[in-house]
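Hypothesis: this fold can be encoded by more than one sequence.
Test: take the structure tokens below, design a sequence, compare later.
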């Protein structure tokens, strides 16, 4: 069992690190409606945007689909952990919204 766990943990860490590497596009939209959060994500030119809401303590990930429109995407544990570490000074724990 231990021999199987180690490679799995290493693969998980590598995947999480690669997905977190591109976390430069973060928009703050406090107490936003879903349409306002989408608007904040659309303002960024990158394909992947994270929208954080400190009032409601949530974080959403938007990605561009094949037509170029931003759609909400599932956020990994590594991504939400990275966001919480990045904004640790705010003393607020963000929760991922995956709709």
């Amino acid at each position: 069992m231990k021999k199987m766990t180690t490679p799995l943990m290493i693969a998980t860490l590598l995947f999480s690190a690669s997905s977190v590497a591109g976390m430069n596009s973060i928009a703050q939209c406090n107490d936003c409606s879903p349409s306002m959060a989408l608007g904040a994500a659309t303002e960024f030119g990158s394909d992947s945007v994270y929208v954080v809401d400190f009032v409601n303590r949530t974080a959403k990930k938007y990605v561009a689909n094949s037509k170029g429109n931003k759609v909400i995407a599932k956020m990994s544990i590594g991504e939400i952990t990275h966001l919480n570490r990045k904004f640790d000074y705010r003393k607020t724990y963000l929760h991922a919204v995956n709709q």
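The radius of gyration is 15 Å. Confidence is low (pLDDT under 50) at residues 14-21.
Hypothesis status: open.
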